Each structure stands twice: as C-alpha cells, then as structure tokens.
Amino acid sequence: MARGGRKLAELVGKLDLIIEVRDARAPFSTSAPLVGSFSKLRPVFCVLSKRDLAAPEGTRAWLDSLGPESWAVDLRKKEGLAPLRRALLERKPAHRELRLAVMGIPNVGKSMLLNALVGKAQAHVGGIPGVTRSVSWYRTEGLLVVDSPGILDPHAEPGVHQLLSWLGCARAEVLGGFEPAALSFIRFLRARGLFSTVLKKWEIEERDDPPEAALERVGRRLGCLVAGGAVNTELAARRLMDAFSSGKLGSVTLERPGDPIYVERRGEQDAPGGL
Ligand SMILES: Nc1nc2c(ncn2[C@@H]2O[C@H](COP(=O)(O)OP(=O)(O)OP(=O)(O)O)[C@@H](O)[C@H]2O)c(=O)[nH]1
Ligand SMILES: [Mg+2]
Fold this sequence. Notes:
This protein is 36% helix and 12% strand. The chain is α/β, with parallel strands linked by helices. It folds into two domains: 3-147, 3-Layer(aba) Sandwich (Rossmann fold); 158-274, Conserved Hypothetical Protein Ylqf, Chain: A, domain 2 (Orthogonal Bundle), CATH 1.10.1580.10.
C-alpha cells in the first residue's frame, strides 16, 4: 500500500464513518478501491458530486443502484446537502461529535464537500488534481471532519486513468498529452452513442470518419489553425477536454450502472469502441 494509503488506513480506526466522494458523471471509474476495502471496517456513505455536470436521469439510476446511503450534490450551488447532513447527524453518538473522513480519488470535490459541511471555506479547493496534500481535521456543530488527499489506484486499467483525465481527475499531460486523451474520448463517445450529445453545442455531427478526422473537425470549428490553414490538433484536443471537464458541453453521464468497464489499453486503439 502506498504511503498515502497507509495513512488513511491508520486513520480509519479513529472514525465512525467514511464519506466516499465520486464524480456523478462516472461513479464507477471514480470510485476508490481502497475506500471499498474500508467498508468492512466502517459504514461508507457515497456522495456523487458535480451532479450539475451529469445527466439527471443517469444520476437517478446511480442513486437507485447504490442504495439508500448515497446522495447526489451540486457543490457549486450547495444543493442536495440537507438530506446528507441529516443522515450524518442521525449517526452522531450521544455524548460526542461524529468523526468522519471525506475520501476519494483526486479532484472529485472532497474539500468542497468538507467546506459545505463545515459551513466555511476552510479547506483548499482547486481545479487541478492533487490540491489537498495531507490529512486535516475540521470541527463543526456535531461533526469532526477530516479532509484527505486524493488516492488513485495504481493497478487500475490504463483506460480508467484515461477516463479520469477526461473528467479532470488525472492529468492528461502525465498520461501522454491531450491529443491521445481526446482521441480516446471520441472513440469512447462513439462506442456509447454519446458523440452527438456531447458535440451538439459545437454543431459537430456524427460521421463515419476516424477519430483523428473528427478531432480535426473540432479544431476547424473552434478555429485552432496554424499558418497555412492546418489544424493544431493538440490545441483542439485541449480545448475539447477543457470544455468537457468543466461542463461547457452540457450535462453528460459517461457511465451507467451495469455498463461494461472501459478498458482501452495503449496499442489497442483499433479495437471496436475500445470497450
Ligand atoms: N460544477 C461543479 N464543480 C465542482 C463540484 N464540486 C467540486 N467542483 C470543482 O471540482 C474541483 C475540485 O474540487 P476540490 O474540492 O478541490 O476537489 P478534491 O477532491 O478536494 O481534490 P484534491 O484535493 O486535489 O484531491 C474544483 O474546481 C471545484 O470547483 C460540483 O458539485 N459541481
Ligand atoms: Mg482536496
């Protein structure tokens, strides 16, 4: 177990409960297997963050599938928090605070959830993965809450890491750049029938062309051109991935309960749909 994981495992003994935060757009790939292993020791509540970026019917399907101890929240607008807070306070021991930790993979909104629960902007929040670097405790009425650094599963399929880069939870730069990320994203959208939904805003229609050609169409549409009129595909890829991860292309759920796991590996790009 990596050092960060060992620290969290030590922490679990001091807790009454764990909140695992996942991204509502891909609740399967954004789950942290380490937190799953803690569920044998402590109750784990599942909070789907960024519900404003996911399709509402997709989020409903996930809440049904995850069961009664799951909630979906929009932390930017602070919506959906009251039922979660009520459920937490129901678990509070009579003579002391409820001790809980917010855990999950990087950039899913753990610190933002903690701030919303504590009622003040205490923990640092940021748009890139890896903002929280250590375990810190925060106190509010009835709750003693720990913020924790994001944990990535080193053994996850490379395809899962690629998917996390589309959501902003892993850095595309580290995984080989924006262009491979955008090409695998386009293949994934096609395999799941989501291409037209995601690219509707930019009026880019589905065609039977290779992903490279589709990315070029994106680049032309956005005016990502170099001298001579060729498309700057790295820039086009970056613009596409930034727009998707920040929700500018609309609310989209990438994974539904029961979908096959996304397992595209390097060198397998020609497998149908990469699934
Ligand atoms: N649209 C939207 N953005 C959110 C929501 N929750 C968090 N974010 C954004 O997600 C980014 C990451 O938030 P953090 O709270 O720093 O995430 P974290 O899980 O603590 O990240 P690390 O500390 O890096 O592991 C920030 O840019 C937030 O503004 C949400 O419900 N909706
Ligand atoms: Mg954080």
